[in-house]
Design goal:
By secondary structure, the protein is an all-alpha fold. It has helices at residues 3-8, 20-28, 44-78, 94-107, 112-116, 124-137, 156-164, 184-188, 190-230. Helix 3 (44-78) runs antiparallel to helix 9 and helix 4 runs antiparallel to helix 6.
Amino acid sequence: MSVLSILSALPDFLPAEASAFTRSLCESAELTANVVPMSLPETLPEAAQMLLALYGSFAKVLETRQIASIAAEKRLKSWGVWEQYSREDLPITLERALQPLRGIAVAYPEIETDLREGRVPQNIVFRSAWHFFCFRYGHRGLYEGDIAVSRFRETPQKTFAQALALAPLRKYDDEFPETPKASWKSRLLSQQWNRYAAEQHEIELLRSETMKQSFAIRLAMLEQASELVRTGRLENTDALWNYSKDDLVKL
C-alpha cells in the first residue's frame, strides 16, 4: 500500500487534486518510521526531505492503526450493529470544531460583517472562542495533508467563511441525540466498538501532532519562498507548490 493511498483514506486530509509538490511527496515517501529532525529546514530541498521522513513515518504508524480499525468496523457491520453506537465516542471532526464559531455568529448576528471581511470582532465571546480554537486547531485545516493548503489561523477570512457555511445546530441536538436503541448484540459487542473508537482517537492524535510539525515546515518554506519572490525567481509564494520536490533544487 502506498503512502498516497493511505493518506487519501483519511477524511478531509487531501483534496481531490493535491498540489504538484504534495503529490510528488506522497508518491516518493516510503512506509518507514524515519526519525524527523526537530530543527527547522534552512533550504527548500532540506524541507522536502524532512517532509518525506515525516509523511513516511506518519503513514507507517497509520497503516497499523487503520488495519485494526477496519477489522473492527467490518466485524461490527457483519453483525448489523454498526449504526447502533453513538458517534459522540469518536474524535471531533474539523468541521465540528468550527461549529462553536458558527453558533456564536448566530447568537450575535452583528458580528457577521466583521467575520465575512476577515476581521476578528470585538465581541469578547467570539474572541475567546477564536483564541481557544487557534490554540487547539490553528495548525490544522480542511485538506491539511496538502502542504499547499493554508491552515485555519493563517487565513481567518477563509476560516470564518467555512464556519458561516455550516448549518447551525438545532436547539436540542445535544440534549436529545438521535441514537438507535441498543440491541443485545450491540451490548455484547461493545468492547469491539470501544476498540474501534480508541483507534480513531489514536489516529486523530497522530494526525494532529504530524500536522503540527508539517505546519512549522510549511511556514519555513513560505519564508524561503518570499526570498525567491523578492529576487524574481518566483512569481508569488503560492507558486512554490507548483514544483515537485525534485524540482525545488532548480530554484
